[in-house]
Amino acid sequence: MVRVSSRAIVAAACLIAAAVAPLRISSAQEDGAVTLGGEISSGKARNGNITFHLEMAKDPASAEQVPLLSIVYRGRQVLRQFGSPGGFGGPYGSARFAEVDNSNDTPEVIFSTFSGGAHCCTQMQVATKAGPISWTMVDLGAWDGEGPTVSDLDGDGTGEFSTVDQRFLYAFDCYACSAAPKQILAIRDGRLEDVSRQDRFRQVQERHLARMIDWQRQAAQPGQEFSPGFYAGYVAQSALLGKGSRAWEEMLSAYSPSRDPGYEMCRNQPYPGQCGPDEKMQVGFPEALRSFLKAFGYDF
Question: Keyword annotations for this protein (predicted)?
Answer without folding.
Answer: Signal
